[in-house]
C-alpha cells in the first residue's frame, strides 16, 4: 500500500510537470508556431521530459528554452523515481517468493505438508508422471529451492496463515509427508477443515494409526514401514520385492503400473481384456477399480467391465 501511494504521488507530480510545462511553452511559443495547439504543447512536454526529443517542435524563445531545460531535468527525476519504485516492488516480490513468505495464488494444484526425507522422493515421482504439476510445499525446514515447478511456503503446516498462503482451499490434492504420526493427524485435520473436496494422502509410521488418520479426513493412508517389509522380503523371496520396487517407481526400473479409462473394454469379460491388451498393446491388466465394488485385484475371468471402470495395468518402462 505504501508503494502504491508513492507511485501515485510520482505520477501526480509527473502529470503536473507535463501540464505546467505545456502551458508555459504554449504561452511563449504559440506566436512563433501559429499552428500549434495546447495538445501539441503537451506532446512536446512529454517528449522533452522523457528526453526522446524528436525535434519536430523546438523552442525559439528564451522562456521556452528555459522551460525545456526544467522539463527535461524534472522528467528525468520523476521517471527515475517511478522506475526505481516499480523495480523495488518487483525485486521485493521475487525475493518474498524465493524466501517462501509470499502468498501463492493457484487452483487445482498439489500441496505437500511437511518436509521429511520422504518429501523429495514424493515430489520426484509426481514430476516424473506429471511434468507440468504445480506443487506447493509448506514447512519451516523446506529448502528455498526444491525444483522446477515447485514453490515454497515457509511456515508451520499447522498454522492457518501458512496454509492460506499456499491456497490450500483451492488445492486438488494434499499430501501429508510427515514421519511423525501425531503431527500427521493434526495436519490432516487442519487440511480437511480448510478444503472439503481435495483428496488427502497421508503417510503413517505406526499401522495402528491408519484408522485415526482416515477418521481425521485422509482419503488414502500409506505406511512408511513398507520399506522394512520389502527389505525383509529380500531374505526369503528376493524377486518379489525387486518387482514391487520396479513397479512403484516411474524414475527407476524397467516396468511401470498405470491407471486408465476402461471404456474401450465395456461389456467384455476381464479374461478377454487380459488377452487383448497383452496381444495388442503389450500390457498386462492386473486390477479393475469399480465405483460400485472398489478395487478388484486379479478379478475373476468372467468379470464384465462396466461403464466408469478404471483399468490398472503393468506396462514396459519404455511405453
UniProtKB/TrEMBL annotation:
Q: Which InterPro entries match?
A: 2pore_dom_K_chnl, K_chnl_dom, NAD(P)-bd_dom_sf, RCK_N, Trk_Ktr_HKT_K-transport
Protein name (record) = Ion channel
Keyword Transmembrane helix annotated:
yes
Per the record, membrane topology reads: Multi-pass membrane protein
Residues passing through the membrane, by range: 38-54, 66-87
Q: Where in the cell is it found?
A: Cell membrane
Where does this chain mainly localize?
membrane
Gene3D superfamilies in alphabetical order: 1.10.287.70, NAD(P)-binding Rossmann-like Domain
Annotated PANTHER family? POTASSIUM CHANNEL PROTEIN 2-RELATED-RELATED, POTASSIUM CHANNEL PROTEIN YUGO-RELATED
Q: Quote the SUPFAM superfamilies the UniProt record gives.
A: NAD(P)-binding Rossmann-fold domains, Voltage-gated potassium channels
Residues in domain RCK N-terminal? 107-222
Amino acid at each position: 500500500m505504501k508503494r502504491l501511494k508513492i507511485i501515485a504521488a510520482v505520477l501526480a507530480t509527473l502529470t503536473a510537470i507535463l501540464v505546467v510545462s505545456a502551458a508555459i511553452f504554449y504561452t511563449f511559443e504559440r506566436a512563433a508556431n501559429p499552428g500549434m495547439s495546447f495538445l501539441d504543447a503537451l506532446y512536446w512536454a512529454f517528449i522533452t521530459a522523457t528526453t526522446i526529443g524528436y525535434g519536430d517542435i523546438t523552442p525559439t524563445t528564451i522562456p521556452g528554452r528555459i522551460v525545456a531545460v526544467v522539463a527535461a531535468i524534472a522528467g528525468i527525476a520523476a521517471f527515475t523515481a517511478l522506475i526505481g519504485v516499480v523495480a523495488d516492488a518487483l525485486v521485493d516480490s521475487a525475493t518474498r517468493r524465493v524466501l517462501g513468505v509470499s502468498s501463492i495464488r493457484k487452483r487445482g494444484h498439489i500441496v505437500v505438508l511437511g518436509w521429511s526425507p520422504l518429501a523429495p522422493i514424493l515430489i520426484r515421482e509426481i514430476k516424473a508422471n506429471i511434468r507440468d504439476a504445480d506443487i506447493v510445499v509448506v514447512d519451516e525446514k523446506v529448502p528455498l529451492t526444491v525444483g522446477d515447478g515447485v514453490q515454497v511456503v515457509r511456515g508451520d503446516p499447522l498454522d492457518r496463515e501458512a496454509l492460506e498462503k499456499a491456497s490450500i482451499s483451492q488445492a486438488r490434492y494434499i499430501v501429508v509427508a510427515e514421519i511423525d504420526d501425531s503431527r500427521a493427524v493434526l495436519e490432516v485435520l487442519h487440511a480437511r477443515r480448510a478444503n472439503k473436496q481435495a483428496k488427502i494422502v497421508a503417510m503413517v509410521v505406526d499401522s495402528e494409526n491408519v484408522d485415526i488418520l482416515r477418521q481425521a479426513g485422509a482419503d488414502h493412508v500409506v505406511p512408511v514401514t513398507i520399506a522394512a517389509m520389502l527389505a525383509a522380503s529380500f531374505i526369503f523371496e528376493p524377486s518379489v520385492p525387486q518387482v514391487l520396487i520396479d513397479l512403484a517407481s516411474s524414475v527407476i526400473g524397467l516396468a511401470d503400473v498405470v491407471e486408465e479409462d476402461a471404456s474401450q473394454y465395456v461389456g467384455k469379460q476381464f479374461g478377454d481384456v487380459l488377452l487383448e491388451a497383452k496381444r495388442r498393446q503389450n500390457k498386462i491388466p492386473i486390477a479393475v477399480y469399480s465405483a460400485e465394488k472398489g478395487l478388484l485385484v486379479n478379478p475373476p475371468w468372467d468379470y464384465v467391465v462396466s461403464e466408469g471402470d478404471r483399468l490398472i495395468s503393468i506396462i514396459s518402462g519404455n511405453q
